[in-house]
Amino acid sequence: xxxxxxxxxxxxxxxxxxxxHGRLHTLREIGYRQSGKQRHRGPDYTGVCCxxxxxxxxxxxxxxxxxxxxxxxxxxxxxxxxxxVANGEIYNYLELSAEIAKRRGHYKPKSDCSVIIEMYEEYGxxxxxxxxxxxxxxxxxxREKTILIARDPFGxxxxxxxxxxxxxxxxxxxxxxIVDVCTKVETFPPGELRYGKADxxxxxxxxxxxxxxxxxxxxxxxxxxxxxLENAVxxxxxxxxxxxxxxxxxxxxxxIASIATKIQREREPSYRLKTFSVGLQNAxxxxxxxxxxxxIGSDHKEIIFxxxxxLDGIRDIIYHIETYDVTTVRCSLPMLLLTRYIKSTGIKxxxxxxxxxxxxxxxxxxxNAPNYNDFHEELVKRVFQLHLSDCxxxxxxxxxxxIELRVPFLDTAFINYVMSVxxxxxxxxxxxxxxxxxxxxxxxxxxxxxxxxxYLPDQVxxxxxxxxxxGVGYNWIDSIRRVATEHVTDSEFAKASERYTVxxxxxKEAYYYRSIFEEMFPGESAAKTVSRWVPRRDWGCPxxxxxxxxxxxxxxx
Length: 557
Hints:
Layout: E1 2-8, E2 18-20, E3 23-25, H1 27-35, E4 45-51, E5 56-62, E6 75-76, E7 82-90, H2 93-104, H3 115-123, E8 133-141, E9 146-151, E10 160-164, E11 169-172, E12 182-187, E13 192-196, E14 202-205, H4 222-236, E15 243-246, H5 251-264, E16 274-279, H6 284-296, E17 299-304, H7 307-311, H8 314-321, H9 326-344, E18 349-351, H10 356-360, H11 372-383, H12 390-399, E19 404-406, H13 412-419, H14 445-450, H15 458-461, H16 468-471, H17 474-486, H18 490-494, H19 496-499, H20 508-520, H21 524-527
Helix pairs in contact: 4-13, 8-9, 8-20, 9-12, 17-20
């Protein structure tokens, strides 16, 4: 995982030096200055390719995870005509490398991402039909003077695209690199590619699964769920550096940790996965996480934080995550403290459980779904907004400290299967089409049932969903809401709709985060990159996104 940055002149000609803070900067100097704002994403190496005659600059801030010695970027094709910077991991690169070697007689990839160039030489823009993983990349073909920009299907890896006053194209992993020089900035959509000359990039959505447009009717196969998720975890374990796993004590992160341990012990029977939890003293998640750690025999560490220490970081976290969404801010602060500790241990890659709630209907407000079709449509909406919420948070918080976070639940094969399962089998509390005759069916029932044969202790496997910002300690949300509210006067809040016409804040807490964001990322263009995570008000759900606000929530002590 890294940071990418690129500038392309609108007409393919040289970009003249620009004046910044009273002096002229060359194209290379401009790039180094702007990409430096995301250098935390790549503490191991900064790579630059500057082609002034083409009006092209491509940069890479590297965090070395796979191909540590050989994977420096920008990457080039053998004939040097194709240049690429990529962020992420290509999980089927070994299979693709074997195919390339068969065609060429010999091929050894420099890193997992290097296969993108070879696949481009073979398939052009259709290479996206062949690679799986989490990625965002920018590729330039010198001979054709064409550009290819693409992002993974669910937006696990962040990417922004902008246009400056002269019409030049800017691309970066984080918005902070381009927002001060571009008149227009947008989030690059997941599952999309843009291809062609800089002044005429053609947009195409390459990922269009059938379940996105039609409510599925396929019955759930628990064995398939289990097999595909285990395969996903196996591919996500490919790395050449020390790694660990987040362990909140919820079923999602616990399953990932358990499966990873099982796989690693195939080669090393005494293997102990390093796992990490965070929370206030006596947080609800700690007891459950300890049960799992003991059960799977992990090397477990609890990070206990104080409320005031987390509150100190509100401004820093909004700068890092580039959003003012209430849920995301609440969750990100404890996670930043956890990530900082993990970094100090020497770990560079961490596994996590993001994504399961969106595809299985795990959030407690899903109990209010009025029917199967609405339930499925809400799942689809949540999956395709992951890049604005959980994926955004998990990536940017971990990369703020130079740690790569991987999310096996968002493996394309796994999510395609689960999202193709009929809503009758996933909706919580509904027994009409499932053979378990409980009076109450817990959320994510089929995921739990698929792993009911010894992967987790029952107390955790069947534990109700506890949202992360609740599970770290119930006093956390109460405290941050109170402190944020104290920063906003009644008169300021009364004029919220006048000051903020885009995503007008509806609470003082939201107003406070928005005002900080506006200082750092001014303008309507930046504000539009944010989407607020809220339960369905039209389903009778309260506005506050906390799981504790839902009527079905059970207090964990």
